[in-house]
Amino acid sequence: MSKPKLALYWAASCGGCEIAVLDIEEKILEVDANFEIVFWPCVMDPKYKDVQAMPDKSIDLCLFNGGIRTSENKKMAELLREKSQVLVAFGSCAHEGCIPGLANLYSKDSLFKRVYKETPTTENSDGVYPQPVTKVPEGELEIPEFQEKLVPLSAVVPVDYTIPGCPPQPHQIWAVLEHIIQGKALPPQGSVLGAGLKTCCDECPRTREEKKIKRFYRPHEIIPNETQCLLDQGIVCCGPATRSGCGGLCVKVGIPCRGCYGAAPESPDQGAKMMAALSSVIDSQDPDEIEQIVNSVADPVGTFYRFSLAGSMLGRNRK
Ligand code: SF4
Ligand code: SF4
Ligand code: SF4
What we know:
Elements: E1 5-10, H1 16-22, H2 27-34, E2 36-39, H3 48-52, E3 59-65, E4 68-70, H4 71-83, E5 84-90, H5 92-96, H6 98-101, H7 108-118, E6 133-136, E7 139-142, E8 146-151, E9 161-163, H8 170-181, H9 200-203, H10 249-252, H11 270-279, H12 287-295, H13 300-304
């Protein structure tokens, strides 16, 4: 009997999600035993035409990591959607844009100006920008077109499931793959797999009390008490706004949750939820003091929307 076909793809992302698949360690052998891996550019050398030649819906499961930033990302998302029965937004970049989505704070023009003209190591006195098509004596060279903003995978094609995390934790990746290998029924389309239905706070072993905050700290500014909630200590921890599933990895070792499992189930806009959470713990009625306390949060957008700006209600800088 032929094995189900598995594809993995890497769009606008760092590649960490591909490594996370290998982090399931020896279980990767079970993946190999139970799936025919038909497309995985990180570890094999297929061409576009190989995917184009596949019959529609012939890939049983496609784990797509990365957001959609270039014309190539979009084309591959559309192609893999056409060829796959089940398309999964795998990891935070595909789910909500993640770190590459923070580039949505800037326009394409300002990003190009910075990268191709202003960076200290760039020599570009003619101010040349990459062009999608360049004529050379031999013909035309094409490179993917950089689009105005990054969007999550679900903004360009229908997505069947999401596995959140930056990257998804290996035990969660294996839980999903094992479920499929064992032939168990999948939950309704649109479900989030490999994660919980609560918040990171619900997985956190730290003790919470009533919070009264006079100043917020970044992790390097304070040595946290080992058992008390980090937010109670004034350290900005995104646990209240973040979906459970990682097992509270960071908070267990004294590092605040940065929010990589994405928006919590009941609060689809992670940044808005986090701002609400912080505003409720500020210990002051005086507008000037409140402003001072709020200003102690360094890089608010990068803190509240680090993983989810592109997928949030704002989506990008609206100025
Ligand atoms: S989700 Fe995180 S680990 Fe995965 S590709 Fe994006 S930035 Fe890298
Ligand atoms: S805010 Fe952070 S440290 Fe506090 S309970 Fe939630 S996850 Fe734990
Ligand atoms: S604690 Fe937060 S940042 Fe750390 S792995 Fe879990 S969800 Fe991600």
